[in-house]
Amino acid sequence: MHKYRARVVCSAMLVVALTALSLAGTAQAKLTGAFTRFAQCPYKNTEVRKCIQSVTESGEVVLGSKKVPIVSPVTLQGGAGPVDEITEMSKFYAATNGVTLSKTPQNVPGGLLGIVPDASSPPLVKALIKFFLENSLTGVNSTLELAKTASDISISEFRIAAEEGVGLKIPVKVHLENPFLGKNCYVGSSTSPITWNMTSATTAPPAPNKAISGFGGEGEFLEEARIVVLKNNKIVDNAWSAPAPTGCGGILSFLVTPIIKAQLGTTSAGYNTAILKGTVSSSPAASVKKNDEEHP
Question: Residue 236 is part of which domain span?
Answer without folding.
Answer: 35-294
